[in-house]
Design a protein that fits this description.
The complex is a heterodimer of chains A (about 350) and B (about 140). Chain A is an all-alpha fold and about 350 residues long. Helix content of chain A is about 80%, strand content about 0%. The longest helix of chain B is centred in the middle third of the chain and has 102 residues. Classes of the chains: A mainly alpha (about 350), B mainly alpha (about 140).
Amino acid sequence: MNQDELDKNYNSVMLLDRDIDSIKNQIQKIKDNIWEIADDISSASKPVAKYSAKQFKDAKNKDDFKIAAMTGAAAVVIDGVGKTFGLMGSVFAEIKGEFKLQKLRSKKKEVALAKIKFAEMTLAWGTVNEDKLGRILKNELSLVVNSYELDSELYYETRQKSLDNYLKCLTIIKMSEFLIKTYKIWINRSDNQVEKPCKQRLLKNYFIEKSQIFPSKMTKEYFIKELQMPTLRADIILLLQNEMFFNLLPITADELIKVTKYLPDGNIAKIAITNNSKYQNAIKLKRKKRKKTVYGWIFLIASVSILLFFNSWGWWNLLMVPFSLILFITAIFLYLDQ
Amino acid sequence: MEQKNTTLNTTEHFNNSVEKVEKNIELLHTYTAEIISSSQDVVNVVSKTMIALKELDKDMKLMDLSFQAYMKNADVNLKKIDIAKENLQRINDRMDKTIDQILSIDINTASVEVIRHRSELISALNLQITQVGNMLMKILDL
């Protein structure tokens, strides 16, 4: 149950009317075909009408006129048959299609109501269990860990699973609410939009604001002080070990890198944060930045030195202009390429 | 003399009749050609209409089939939802017991064995919650 799955399901729920649309398209195609046939039939009246007109023109006696009139009448009848076929066929297709659409809509409504009922059950399930699973997680996080080895052997896995349980429960609640709202909107044919459940928002709302799994007013100073302790609170270990909480830390990435740099090697916080990929990325980014600055300075100093060296020969030496220019451009390229 | 005149009149009358017949034959020929041409058009239209009617019949059958498939699918989905409801109830009963057991253990005071047992219970709980989540996802996807 990750964000990709949520997105996939969100998209499939948004396509609720795809089968109804498909039937609608098929009905339209049938109606178009009927009118095409009607036009074909009507077009058959044209040569007959033309022939009748010729007969009228050539008619010399009463009998000739009679025959011409009969031929003309036949043309009118053929045209009438075509138009009647088009009209009747189209009405028939419309009625038949509408009947099928009504039946399909009512069946879909039945399914939608059943889904709502199920979502209401899962919502009730989630609401009841949210508190219990929160309590289990809080119990896990109330520990103070003495050594990283003991933590990884005894507590790490259970703590992660308790976190996963709580997160899944919250996701189920949000998905159920989403499903209920979406299907109610669909049933009522309203244009309202349902907001897509977002995991990041969930974390902030529930972990800090609502359930207070993590203290909401953890200051930077307090957090740094905790990191430097030989023992570490389990909630801080959880914050450090999971990249999803990296943005919720009361400290910037740069500050965290600076603090952990001066921690002793056996420090629990230092070991806990080492495997966090977001922390690693922050370190890589910082190194890159530092490298860039160093390269920039080296090239600047080198360029100025060369400039001064040529200058000592006299400004008339034109060689120094393109040379310095190339040097600067190379420096810029290297700088940007980092 | 009178006999000669009568013979001349008869010849002239005969000539006129032949001319008239010739004209009529010519006219008949033209009419026949036109009738054939018109009939050809009508035949073409009729055959084209027959093909289009067959195509129309095929489209109607196709629409009926799609409709039946959608209706059948909806019935299957209703059954799936009913089964999911039953499963949810069953999982919920099991979960309640597991949660109560876990909550009865305090991680701060429990012995290592009890902590390990608690860990097993949490793993079992994780499986149950995953089942509920998967069920909800499947229902969403129906």
